[in-house]
Design a protein that fits this description.
Layout lengths: L9 E5 L4 H12 L3 E6 L7 E4 L2 E6 L2 H8 L3 E4 L3 H13 L4 E4 L6 H14 L2 E3 L5 E4 L3 E4 L8 E8 L2 H10 L5 E6 L10 H10 L5 E7 L4 H12 L4 E6 L23 H10 L3 E3 L2 H20 L1
Parallel strand pairs: 1-2, 1-5, 2-4, 5-6, 6-7, 10-11, 10-12, 12-13, 13-14
Antiparallel strand pairs: 3-4, 8-9, 8-11
Helix pairs in contact: 3-4, 5-9, 6-7, 7-8
Amino acid sequence: MAIYLTKESKVLVQGMTGGEGMKHTRRMLAAGTDVVGGVNPRKAGRTVDFDERTVPVFGSVREGREATGADVTVVFVPPAFAKAAVVEAADAGIGLAVVITEGIPVHDSVAFHAYAATKGTRIIGPNCPGLITPGQSNAGIIPADITKPGRIGLVSKSGTLTYQLMYELRDIGFSTCVGIGGDPVVGTTHIDCLASFEADPDTELIVLIGEIGGDAEERAAAYVRDHVTKPVVGYLAGFTAPEGRTMGHAGAIVSGSSGTAQAKKAALEAAGVQVGGTPTETARLVLARLEAERDVTHS
């Protein structure tokens, strides 16, 4: 019941000894994540105590992977160092890099995404909340106590809306929730997650959260139409956003009719995706769709 992240995942934290890294490492550990080490060249050889877990600090990602078998890294380093951190993780053979850092220059993101692709490293983010497989593992900053394991897959540009839908649907629960980030350039896309959830036997329904700007949702709609057999319910942020102004995420900017919430809603609905007008309405659509699928199965 998971994509990308399971209870078997072994997680390094680049920037663990910083303020944000310390806080969220503690939260990840509390959620059951197997955090096997931090990375800080200036503090190599030390350990950090987190309640009942002592976590070693390594001088490099490669050293940490070789010592622990880590296959995931969560990046909490400042924007100026993010490119080097991701390149280091890719060179070390890490399969999944979750880049929480916001404010990374677009040209740096383009460069490390392209480099990671040559090494077979999947990127989540940047400027994202990470991902969580409830009851198994949590890599990032998503609150772990607002939902439970279940059969809904969630992919979202927005961190806040990720949390809200997780809470609204807490009685059903989630297989995996992936916050892909809202920057103009992100690694893992809506389409990547749709494909993975489609292939996951324990995901019964997919929730797709988008927002204004770009054409990611329109491309996702085309993918749903052609490749997804499971029910998909959507929500879009930004129906009241003024044209030509960046709103919230750096990627959330519209020009003319391109990238508007209305255009995205039309594309998704044409592909058979029900789109809610509010997060609460979206949750109601999910519940109704699950009930309808159950009725069909039992008839």
